[in-house]
């Protein structure tokens, strides 16, 4: 044996990617994490369903590590909201370096060709549909160009994939899973849902090679409490009467509930006789909540208040009653960070944005967090809470969407919330999401969920919410006009129908159909191969291939008829959409073999619930008399969704041009509404004037302080709708700039106006809130 050979024999075996990754972690992997990572390394996709705070993100981080370990591999990391995308972007930049990580959120387009790209799910869906669409101008939308390249993509992380059940946005997750190239491995991360196996079976049926990894273990135990006017009482007690994570309901709370019920009944009778109620619980104020959490050492804490005004009022009440939870050193750190964040604001901006009150609350360790806050304010609150400088955050439920704000305790003020129409009870899924923020791995040894007591609390209902750790995910998928033209641009109508038969919506309707539809797709591929062979064959060979093709074609048609007869609900909806689009000339050809027209190509680039209304308005010239501020205001109208059914009508900008354009858009909407009804399709909500006048003023250069005061809205709300408006303006610009046909010249001019409108809005606090 040579010396070289001896050295080779003594060399230790190469470490697996999982072993290398594990060595980098400051903690050991749990069994479910190790299993999921091993499956990924084997080349499989995974659906991981586990409790909030259990460490699902570690599996996504392994996928990133695996992608970077493999030469030229790329990975896309998606999150349901922009705040989460921004947070994950910064985390990955710290780990892999800024040159390796990109961010695409619609209003930010940064290094889209990087090997690791973080984006919202909508951006990824748009990229999938935009494959083959001309590259947009530099610096514009994320859909298209090299960042839209999916051929060299190896992994996609779908965080919070249980959002698939959301009735407004859930279809986006389903479209991604259906239409991503088959070679891409998916890392789907979900809360503990009761039908995870069903969801995983569907993913395996449509993509193959998918494993379901389940864990119900919460590494940080969660204890349930009820805050009464006297003390913080455990909801459950064990055999020895001590606090338990689960068990029987605390007898002391039973007595309180019985007393409250008697007091309520007595109160109603007493009032009829002119006497005061016999027994009623003292109302627990938000400052009482702060004191109780401080005294029981349950800080830092998140207190969920299902009202933006309620969150702001809670901070004011704590200030008024002298709540102070920070040391002098902590106050100095808070003050320095907050002053850095607002250094570029004018005195007038600081006044209208309520900076003095915001700073006062922060320095005492108390803050609000909701969609009405300016993004920079929310960012500072999140950072200071993570650093354990801010001790209590009064937040709306949007904070439960996965933002990294680890709390020792979570308080829920009420077990019902206003949904825009009525007060409705919290679902078990909502309760699980909210309380899941309490107790974070590696930080806390236990978490605490606290419900504030009032006389209408139903202990049995509360115990059910606290005990039900999972909820089902049901599909909200349905074909839309934009989806139809994008799919028909890529495949035949028959192939689209077969693809739609693979949807999770169809799978839940009839699980067997998905397997049969997959077989039909394989038959169709084989038939295409036979047809090619017939063209090449000669003599006897030709007859043999023709016979094979004929038999397969009959079998394929028989299978299609069987599927259509059994269910076909999604396909029938698609056929109705095709009929409507054909009637409007977005599709040509026949209903059986439709072809995307020039106007259909324009519709391909318009996304959202009002896709067809925007396209029709462009076609009928409803925007052509508008200048840049007017077009900005109109795109705000077409983006805006009222928060509640009884919201006022809003104000229109002055001038006849906008009023005429608005009336024309309403006429188009009414016609499309009637058309949708005739074709038995869902109808879009009527456009709402909303912030049209406010957006028009902003685009004309008016100062933000006057606009917010006149509109009576928060800066955060304005920035959010400004970003939505920018996104639609960008879509309009791309659609018009890529238009073909006889309307090319007028649409190109409108595209120029849309670009100018976008620039007029993206300034001041909107610009500073759009950075990564």
Which helices and strands occur, and which strands form pairs?
Blueprint: H1 3-10, H2 17-24, H3 31-41, E1 45-49, H4 57-69, E2 74-79, H5 82-96, E3 101-104, E4 109-110, E5 116-120, H6 121-130, E6 153-158, H7 170-179, E7 185-190, H8 196-207, E8 210-214, E9 222-227, E10 232-234, E11 236-237, E12 248-249, H9 251-272, H10 286-295, E13 301-304, H11 308-320, H12 328-341, H13 347-352, H14 355-363, E14 366-369, H15 375-386, E15 392-395, E16 409-412, E17 416-418, E18 423-425, H16 428-435, E19 447-452, H17 459-467, H18 481-490, H19 493-500, H20 504-509, H21 511-536, H22 539-566, H23 569-583, E20 587-589, E21 594-596, H24 598-603, H25 611-619, H26 628-639, H27 656-678, H28 692-699, H29 704-711, H30 715-737, H31 744-761, H32 764-768
């Amino acid at each position: 044996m040579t010396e070289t050979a001896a050295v080779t024999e003594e060399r230790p075996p190469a470490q697996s990617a999982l072993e290398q990754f594990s060595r980098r972690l400051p903690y050991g992997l749990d069994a479910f994490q190790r299993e999921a990572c091993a499956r990924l390394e084997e080349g499989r996709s995974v659906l991981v369903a586990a409790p909030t705070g259990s460490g699902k993100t570690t599996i996504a981080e392994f996928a990133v590590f695996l992608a970077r370990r493999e030469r030229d591999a790329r990975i896309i990391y998606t999150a349901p909201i922009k705040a989460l995308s921004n947070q994950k972007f910064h985390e990955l930049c710290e780990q892999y370096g800024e040159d390796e990580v990109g961010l695409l959120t619609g209003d930010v387009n940064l290094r889209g060709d990087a090997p690791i790209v973080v984006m919202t799910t909508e951006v990824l869906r748009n990229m999938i549909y935009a494959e083959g669409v001309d590259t947009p101008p530099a610096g514009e939308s994320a859909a298209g160009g090299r960042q839209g390249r999916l051929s060299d993509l190896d992994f996609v992380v779908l965080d919070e994939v249980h959002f698939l059940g959301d009735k407004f946005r859930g279809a986006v997750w389903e479209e991604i899973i259906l239409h991503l190239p088959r070679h891409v491995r998916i890392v789907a991360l979900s809360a503990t849902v009761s039908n995870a196996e069903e969801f995983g079976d569907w993913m395996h049926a449509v993509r193959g090679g998918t494993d379901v990894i389940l864990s119900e273990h919460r590494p940080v135990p969660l204890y349930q409490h009820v805050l009464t006017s006297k003390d913080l009482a455990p909801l459950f007690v064990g055999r020895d009467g001590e606090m338990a994570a689960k068990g029987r309901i605390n007898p002391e709370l039973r007595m309180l509930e019985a007393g409250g019920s008697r007091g309520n009944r007595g109160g109603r009778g007493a009032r009829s006789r002119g006497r005061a109620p016999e027994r009623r619980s003292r109302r627990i104020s938000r400052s009482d909540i702060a004191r109780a959490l401080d005294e029981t050492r349950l800080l830092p804490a998140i207190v969920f208040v299902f009202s933006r005004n309620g969150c702001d009022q809670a901070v004011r009440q704590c200030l008024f009653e002298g709540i102070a939870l920070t040391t002098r050193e902590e106050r100095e750190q808070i003050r320095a960070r907050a002053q850095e964040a607002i250094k570029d604001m004018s005195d007038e901006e600081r006044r209208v944005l309520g900076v003095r009150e915001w700073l006062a609350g922060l320095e005492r360790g108390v803050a609000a967090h909701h969609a009405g806050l300016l993004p920079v304010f929310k960012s500072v609150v999140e950072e200071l809470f993570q650093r354990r400088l801010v001790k209590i955050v009064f937040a709306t439920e949007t904070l439960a969407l996965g933002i990294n704000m680890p709390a020792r305790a979570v308080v829920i003020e009420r077990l019902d919330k206003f949904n825009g129409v009525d007060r409705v009870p919290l679902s078990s899924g909502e309760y699980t999401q909210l309380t899941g923020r309490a107790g974070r791995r590696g930080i806390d040894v236990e978490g605490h969920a606290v419900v504030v007591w009032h006389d209408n609390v139903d202990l049995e209902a509360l115990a059910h919410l606290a005990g039900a750790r999972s909820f089902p995910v049901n599909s909200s998928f349905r074909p839309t006009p934009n989806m139809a033209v994008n799919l028909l641009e890529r495949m035949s109508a028959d192939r689209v129908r077969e693809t739609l038969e693979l949807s999770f919506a169809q799978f839940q309707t009839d699980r067997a159909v998905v397997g049969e539809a997959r077989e039909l797709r394989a038959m169709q591929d084989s038939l295409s191969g036979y047809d090619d062979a017939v063209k090449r064959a000669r003599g006897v060979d030709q007859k043999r291939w023709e016979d094979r093709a004929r038999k397969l074609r009959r079998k394929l048609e028989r299978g299609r008829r069987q599927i259509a007869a059994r269910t076909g609900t999604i396909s029938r909806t698609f056929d109705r959409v095709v009929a409507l689009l054909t009637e409007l000339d977005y599709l040509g050809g026949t209903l059986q073999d439709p072809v995307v027209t020039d106007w259909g190509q324009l519709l391909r680039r318009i996304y959202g619930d009002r896709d067809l209304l925007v396209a029709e308005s462009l076609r009928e010239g409803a925007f052509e008399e508008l200048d840049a501020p007017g077009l900005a205001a109109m795109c705000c109208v077409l983006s805006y969704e009222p928060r509640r059914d009884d919201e006022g009508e809003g104000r229109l900008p002055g001038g006849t041009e906008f009023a005429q354009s608005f009336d024309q858009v309403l006429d188009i909407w009414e016609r499309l509404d009637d058309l949708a009804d005739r074709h038995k399709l869902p109808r879009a909500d009527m456009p709402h004037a909303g912030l049209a006048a406010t957006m028009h003023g902003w685009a004309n250069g008016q100062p933000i302080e006057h606009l917010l005061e006149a509109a009576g809205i928060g800066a955060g709300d304005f920035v959010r709708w400004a970003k939505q408006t920018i996104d639609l303006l960008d879509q309009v610009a791309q659609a018009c700039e890529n238009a073909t046909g006889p309307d090319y010249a007028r649409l190109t001019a409108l595209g120029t106006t849309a670009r100018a409108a976008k620039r007029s809005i993206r300034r001041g606090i909107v610009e500073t809130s759009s950075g990564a």
